[in-house]
Write a structure and sequence with these properties.
mainly alpha, two-stranded antiparallel ribbon
């Protein structure tokens, strides 16, 4: 039978693309109908993500009850544990992934599912959900829904715009739920072309330049990720997978030598030494990465003892593969880190961002800042650090320095801008620096790193809310004034008090005002950094003053005073208010109730990842 959770994750991912396909059959002149169909698609996707969230929460609570612990300490929060339990179940043919129901009833609610896709290369349609991906999925579906409402005034090629918009949502969601590296890479590339065209066709006067620059930078990062992915694939990981996969690989060796499957199985012992298991399974690669770190740190016996392999002697020999060397780990980590850091974006790979934001239409700027930048941070957390942990630990201080550079450079660059939209773009560079810094502060005390990682995750969600809201506020006034020159505004609070109030709340949230969402993540990161490097922590804390300066200066230039040129401007329309108010509500709720709204169900997964990696460096 089909798993309910697999169906929900698949439906949530592909509903936007299916509706985009449906738009092919709608006449291009029916603009209003196309808009409503697209809005319906994003609404259904948002509803499905909420259903997935409720199911995921229920799974956490049930798993915790079964073990007599709180959800915070339940193993259900750890994606690797659920994947291992699922893979250990008896294999039958009554589920799409071949795991079967065994004696435990239908596998409908573990939020891990896999289906053979390209068996020759061991590529799977493999999806999973945990506290790292779930908040980003919810943020994605909400922002796409609100951005679709914000897209109502798009008049040029509405049909093409909506089709690309919906395809982009499928690409983003696929990245957050994919647990097969090949599948992740497919979704990663699916995002590239829609965004290129959305900027290049519907953008501002320099849209072609901005779109090409975005495309080239992102493509460069994709090439780096592809190289690392292929390098991982050609590692024999037989010691870290289900024994059935090793048997299948041995039988395949016999088949390649001209035997039928039955005869090859009878002579399986003969073919076993020649078998090689190659995989794109991210969970398996995480295990191999941890074993590589133990070996490099002189704990090879511990790595062999902890591995599920029954061939311990053979495993010792196989740990001489290139994957388990310092040079390989550093090279692959650098490739992955740069590939994802370009998307963050991290200095000095950030120059595509201001151009893309300035030229992109407002709804696309909202998505670019609110979601696409988070894919870089997610990739570092989900892929780069767990697969290359030794290199991440070895280069931790260097990564932290780049995070601090992002924070300081982005703040000063934002202060120097006179274009309202470019100022917000550089503020994103600064705020995403906290994400890099929080991820980087790997110390011997896992609790301190937990603060950093949880702060980085919280910052991604908070920045997703505030940055999208800020770009929307810029778009609202641009629709009226038709310019973004900060020196030519002034006095907007008088004719547009509701818009001014919304803007103040949103910008204060981005500033990191206590009681609003931007404060929580930044404080957690600074506290973690203080226990890692006090000099970096002091620099980071001082940068908050620069952030406050450019935000307060911006508010003064745009909203205070009087300006007769803008006295007849109409305040926010109902449609604009529908988009803006949820951002304000989230900014306040996340700031006042951070534990109840997010950390309580996000932290177990993040802390589990931190614990599994920090134990390697602490020697426990």
């Amino acid at each position: 039978m089909y798993e309910n959770d697999m169906f929900l994750m698949t439906a949530m991912t592909f509903v936007p693309a299916l509706f985009g396909l449906l738009l092919l059959f709608i006449p291009g002149g029916a603009k209003e109908l196309i808009r409503w169909i697209s809005l319906l698609a994003t609404a259904i996707t948002l509803a499905l993500s909420l259903v997935v969230f409720v199911g995921y929460q229920d799974m956490l609570e049930r798993t915790a009850r079964e073990r007599g612990v709180t959800p915070l300490h339940g193993s259900g929060a750890l994606l690797e544990n659920r994947a291992d339990v699922a893979n250990a179940r008896p294999v039958t043919a009554d589920t799409p992934d071949g795991r079967g129901t065994g004696n435990n009833g239908p596998l409908s609610d573990d939020y891990v599912g896999r289906y053979p896709w390209i068996k020759q290369f061991n590529i799977e349609y493999y999806l999973g959900m945990d506290g790292i991906s779930m908040p980003l999925v919810l943020l994605t579906t909400l922002l796409f829904f609100l951005s679709m409402i914000a897209s109502w005034n798009i008049e040029k090629h509405v049909k093409g715009y909506c089709m690309l918009f919906l395809l982009l949502e499928t690409g983003v969601l696929g990245c957050f739920v994919a647990l097969d590296f090949f599948l992740f890479y497919i979704f990663w590339e699916v995002m590239l072309l829609p965004m290129y065209f959305l900027i290049g066709i519907w953008g501002g006067p320099r849209r072609e330049y901005a779109a090409i620059k975005f495309f080239l930078y992102t493509l460069l990062g994709s090439v780096f990720i592809l190289i690392a992915m292929l390098a991982f694939y050609f590692t024999d990981v037989r010691d870290f997978v289900n024994p059935n996969k090793v048997r299948e690989a041995a039988i395949a060796v016999g088949v390649r030598q001209g035997l039928d499957a039955g005869a090859a199985e009878q002579r399986i012992a003969e073919f076993m030494p020649q078998a090689s298991v190659n995989t794109f399974d991210l969970i398996t690669l995480h295990k191999v990465g941890r074993a590589a770190m133990l070996k490099i740190m002189g704990k090879e016996d511990q790595a062999i003892a902890e591995a599920p392999s029954t061939d311990k002697a053979g495993m010792k020999e196989r740990m001489n593969q290139l994957f388990f060397t310092k040079g390989f780990q550093i090279t692959m980590f650098v490739l992955l880190f740069i590939g994802f850091a370009i998307k963050v974006p991290m200095f000095p790979f950030h120059t595509w961002l201001p151009d893309a934001h300035v030229e992109a239409p407002t709804p696309i700027s909202m998505i670019l800042a609110g979601i696409l930048l988070k894919l870089g941070g997610y990739g570092i957390i989900r892929i780069a650090y767990p697969i290359c942990p030794w290199a991440a630990y070895y280069l931790a201080y260097s990564v932290a320095i780049f995070g601090v550079i992002n924070i300081v450079y982005g703040a000063f660059a934002a202060m120097a801008q006179t274009d309202f939209k470019k100022l917000v773009a550089y503020s994103s560079v600064s705020h995403m620096g906290y994400v890099i810094l929080g991820i980087a502060v790997w110390s011997a005390h896992s609790q301190h790193w937990e603060w950093g990682m949880n702060g980085a995750m919280f910052q991604m969600i908070a920045h997703g809310v505030t940055s999208a809201a800020m770009f929307f506020c810029v778009g609202v006034i641009y629709d009226r004034a038709h310019h973004r020159d900060l020196n030519n505004f002034r006095g907007l609070m008088e004719p547009m008090p509701f818009y001014g109030g919304i803007s103040f709340l949103v910008f204060f949230a981005a500033l990191g005002l206590p009681g609003m969402c931007g404060f929580i993540g930044e404080v957690m990161v600074v506290l973690a950094t203080w226990n890692y490097s006090r000099s970096l922590a002091i620099i980071t804390a001082l940068a908050v003053v620069i952030t406050a300066a450019y935000i307060l200066w911006t508010l003064q230039r745009v909203y205070f005073g009087t300006n007769d040129a803008y006295k007849d401007y109409k305040d926010m329309s109902l449609r604009e208010a529908v988009v803006a108010v949820p951002f304000v509500v989230l900014s306040i709720v996340l700031g006042i109730f951070p534990w109840q709204s997010l950390l309580s169900w996000m932290q177990p997964s993040v802390s589990g990842l931190v614990d599994s990696l920090s134990r390697l460096s602490s020697g426990s």
